[in-house]
Amino acid sequence: MKKILFMVAFLSSLTVLAQDETVKNLKKDSERQIKKDPNDTTTKTWKTGGFIGLNAAQGSLSNWAAGGDKFSLALNGNLSTYAFYKKNKHSWDNTLDINIGYMNTTSLGSRKNDDRIDLVSKYGYAIGKKWNVGALFNFRSQMFKGYTYDSDGNRTFSSNFLSPAYVLLSPGLEWKPNKDFSIFMSPATVRWTIVRNDSLASVGAYGVDTGRHVKTEFGAFASLNYFKEINKMFSYKSRLDLYSNYLDKPKNVDLYWTNMINMKLTKYLTLTYSLDMIYDDDVRLFGANNESPAAQIKSMLGLGFLVKF
């Protein structure tokens, strides 16, 4: 009987020791830190997002001694989206901006005050810490018919979708000293000006030869881009494109400059200010005889909704 009791006690002690060792091993495993394999370079290759904004302004007057329109309404919407790819030394940045705006006043009636499609696609291959070699593609046009107005309010048809449109293909170098600022430079850029509309092409609008629908240019191109989120409430975005046509008046540099400031007031309510400037020596719609180029400037301040996605 004593031998049996001894064997039971001995086996019980072995079981307890085994359980203790198992518990210790489980504890060690739970506390052990899993180290990442140094050869595992898996990262998120795509980053996408953007925002949709809608601004509105309305005013009305009745027996107002200072004068003005009895009724005015302005609506402006914009879509800004991006898709950025980054893997190893390869990068591919894509942005699309669409703006549309209309205004209505008692004296002027309904008029379009903004209309733009702007697509930029840029590929880069890193050759240094701050340098990329690659190519840039840009397409710019509008969606709806546009008109110019004389002092008497008479309108003249001046533009439409693909009339004009600008297509640019530019191999070059990019310098990006930080995440907020970049400069793309190319000494050899091809730009096509497209005027699809027959009536505009027949008068040689936007620099195309009379009766032709496409004008090809070869020149130098530079694009400066800056985007800064100063804090959760305030952001600033700017882009400046410069183009010089080697084949015709190279000193008359075409300029395309856009600026946007967003100030977030609440979760969805945002104060937005935009300032755009365009100078194209081939756009000769201004002056006393509507035959001269001029700086085109658009400034807008609006309060409305902005939703990020």
Annotation, overall tally of beta strands: 14
* β-strand amount: over 45%
Write down the secondary-structure element order: HEEEEEEEEEHEEEEE
Helix content: 10-25%
Total helices: the number is 2
Task: State the secondary-structure class.
Answer: mainly beta
Radius of gyration: 31 Å
Adjacency order of strands in the biggest sheet: 1-2-3-4-5-8-9-10-11-12-13-14
User: What distance separates the N and C termini?
Assistant: 79 Å
Note the quaternary state here: single chain
3D structure, described in words:
The structure is a single chain. This protein has 309 residues and is mainly β. The chain is 11% helix and 56% strand. It contains 2 helices and 14 strands. The strands form 2 sheets. It has a 12-stranded antiparallel beta barrel with strand order 1-2-3-4-5-8-9-10-11-12-13-14. The chain is flat. Mean pLDDT is 85; it is low at 1-42.
Short description:
The protein is flat and about 65 Å long. It has helices spanning 2-31, 198-202; strands at 46-60, 71-87, 90-105, 109-126, 131-141, 146-149, 155-159, 165-175, 181-194, 214-229, 234-245, 254-264, 269-279, 296-308.
